[in-house]
Amino acid sequence: MNPHESTEIIHSTKRRDSLGGNRIHLKNRTICVGFCVLLLATLSVSVASGQVSTDQQPSPENNTMYLWGDASLASGSCFTDFSSDGATEVGFGEYDDTENIDFSCSLSGPLSQELFLDSEGSISLSLGFLIQSTENSGDDLVLSFSKDSELLAQEEFMLPTFSDEQVNWNIPITDNMSYWEEGTSPVLHVQFNKPGPTTLECLDPNKFIAGCDPKFRMYYSDNTDGLNVEGFFPILNSSDPGAINPNQPVGEDKPITLSVGEGAISVLLFSPWFIGIILFVGFITMRSDRFQLGVVLEEESEETETVEQLPEGKTLEDSYRARVLTLCALYVAQGIPWGFITVTFVTFLAGEGVGAGELALLLTLGTLPWSLKFLWGPVIDRFQYPKMGRRRPWVLVAQLGMIISLSAMLLIPDPTSDLTLIASMFLIYNIFTSLQDVSTDALAVDVLKPHELEKVNSYMFTAKAVGGIIGGAGLGTIIGFVGIKGAIFLQIPILVIIMLVPLFMTERPGEKRFPWSEDSDLPFWEDVEEKRDIKDIFSDVKTAFSLRSAQLGIGLSLVMSLSFFMIPVLPLLFVRELGWSEEQFNATKGGLILVVTMIGYMIGGQLGKRFGGKMIIIYSALGAAILNMIWGVSEPLWASELFMMSIWCLHTIAWAMVAINTYSLMMKVTWGKVGGTQFTGYMAMMNLSAIIGYQLTDPFATRFDYPTLFLLAGLLETFVILVAVMIDPDETNRLLPDNQLPQPQP
Fold first, then answer.
1. What's the rounded Cα separation, in Å, for the pair 477 and 211?
2. Which end of the chain is more exposed for a tag (fewer CB within 10 A), N or C?
């Protein structure tokens, strides 16, 4: 779920609830929270159902190496990896000879990230052999352990012949073994050179029964002969004090080699722009009336109706509880994929060595359907099955599509091996998620009462945040235990539970729950509202966007998220450079940062009502840009977790204040007659802005270092100031008749 979709139900007028209405709302306020608690409990219970990670790269949690290969060592291959899920043809590899045996078993793929070993520990290798050779002459078994071609350890073993033998080799960690660069590989080298058994030796009954043929056999990790074949590596987390890069200059706490580009632009070159923006903001502040900085974008109207305390029924139309539960549940379902993709999965891939450009591709395809979601509107309006409800069938179709898409991802053997495939599947997943979003919005517009819009909207926003926390902090914290497939799998029972809510609810009395249910005698589906002619709608939309402020609204929407190119960069910085664990980063971004975002929305909304929305947009954008500039020039402080979390939280609050007031500004310049279409267009442009931002990741991240990237992000954020200051919030009200604050339409 894209963060720009935070305000989905926009009320036409704001009303204060009567005393009786407040009692009803207080009584039902816990419905959404209770449902979210149930989902969190389900997530905890379902951890045992997760699948084991099939990662073949070494890590502190994945420190056991396994040996695999072909049955013929002479014409086949031998390799190692850190997955126990492998399988071989017969459980061993053989030479039909014992002379001049010389082969190597290397890691199946070079190290995707640097590796640190405990300098006080040792590598323990357990191997199994069966050798049928003479015992009187030649060279015994010699095992070598190397880093690529660099010999690290070597030892000779004298083994009895014609019997399965277990070899245990303990290799103490030396200085040149404690650090492994990215791209290197551990290599096991095996040598043996003895003639085959002599005729006299073959007179031994045991050797005669065995065939007395020359044979050199090495067992693999899945052998059935009872031999233990594996290796233990004392791997450290990169943040461990003992994880030392000997190539690092003395006196520096962190590596200077970056996983992004090495180009740097001095802050002095950025200074004239930032100084100019600060002076410009000071200038317009002195003329705040002229630039309408103090205009309140959301004005409260007087109470026009009270809430009637009527007996509640069982359908969405006549049950407030049913409306809240259903809408909150569906918004949780929207938050989970956003949290999982932007936090958990991106961080996991960053830890596996995936580059910023590839991460941006995943985020782009995940965001694309949200930029085109307005195309669903005519579809769900045109094709309906009213006997089951106007919107409910589409919600169920979308929910089922989400479940099937996730299930299909489990069929991919290794989600990290083909990023294009997994990104394409996330695209399909988000197509169904965006359909669910549009259908849910249309359902809310249909069933919510005017006095419920403000309250229920806040419940739905909270539910969506909880979904983001489940997908981000929740799945991100346990991914180390269940693996990426386990994290995908755990979403399925959650979505199934959510689907049960609309499945057993109906929109109006007389509707049937299932297609095969008996039809009702109530001809409610025949009462269809007269639809406006499509030409009139397009004409009104053209009129709405003919105003200068409406056109500038498109511009503001398109520059809102250009700095999102930093989203794929942050996990690279925190996990691969600063040594944060994936679980720590996921818990921060998917938990703390989401909570801070909600705080920023609340603070920004209140300040906008008090001082004017445009003023808060401009000052918050300036503050966010300055924080990015400080972030970029403070690299020596990045080793401090307190500093990094503090500046990240402050920037998040500032940009959340920009976002919430931008939503209100877009509402203000929207013509109520085509409110849903126009406002949905603005939201789609904001999502398109995010896609443009993601596309900037690769050209920026491959050229510039981290400090420069933060400075570029700050510069792009100032574009919001330049566009927002030119928008006249009252132009639509002045020039277009019958304007009212819009409600979103599908």
1. 56
2. C
* CA separation for the pair 710, 718 (Å, rounded): 13
Contact (CB, 8 A) for 122 and 202: no
Cα 642 to chain centroid, rounded: 24
- Nearest-angstrom CA–CA distance, 569 and 719: 21
Contact assessment for residue 86 and residue 68, using Cβ atoms and an 8 Å cutoff: yes
Residue type, 492: I
Whole-angstrom CA distances from 196 to 135, 140, 213, 659 are 9, 13, 7, 78
502 phi and psi angles, rounded to 5 deg: -70, -20
Given a cut of 90, is residue 109 above it in pLDDT?
A: no
Q: Across 463-528, where does the E strand assignment appear?
A: none
CA distances 296 to 12, 13, 291, 611, 613, Å, are 16, 15, 13, 7, 6
Name the one residue in this structure whose structure tokens are 């660069």. Answer: 181
Q: Regarding beta strands 78-81 and 101-107, do their DSSP bridges make them parallel or antiparallel, or are they unpaired?
A: parallel
| Of residues 392, 337, 407, the one with CA closest to residue 370 | 337
The answer to whether the beta carbons of residues 735 and 642 sit under 8 Å apart is no
Quick count: other Cβ atoms within 10 Å of Cβ 461? 20
Q: Which of 437, 454, 446, 439 is nearest to 315 (CA)?
A: 446
* DSSP bridge pairs for 608: none
User: CA of 520: how far to CAs of 357, 386, 443, 516, 577, in Å?
Assistant: 55, 12, 21, 12, 64
Q: Can you give the pLDDT at residue 187?
A: 94
Structure tokens at 516: 């095969």
pTM for this entry: 0.54
429: closest CA among 415, 417, 443, 442?
Answer: 415
pLDDT digits (tens, 9 = 90+) for 247-269: 665 444 444 334 577 788 988 99
What is the per-residue pLDDT across 650-696, written as a single tens digit (0 to 9) for each? 999 999 889 878 877 877 787 766 655 666 677 778 878 888 888 88
The tokens of 453 are what?
């819009």
Burial class (CB in 10 A: 0-12, 13-18, 19+), 543: middle
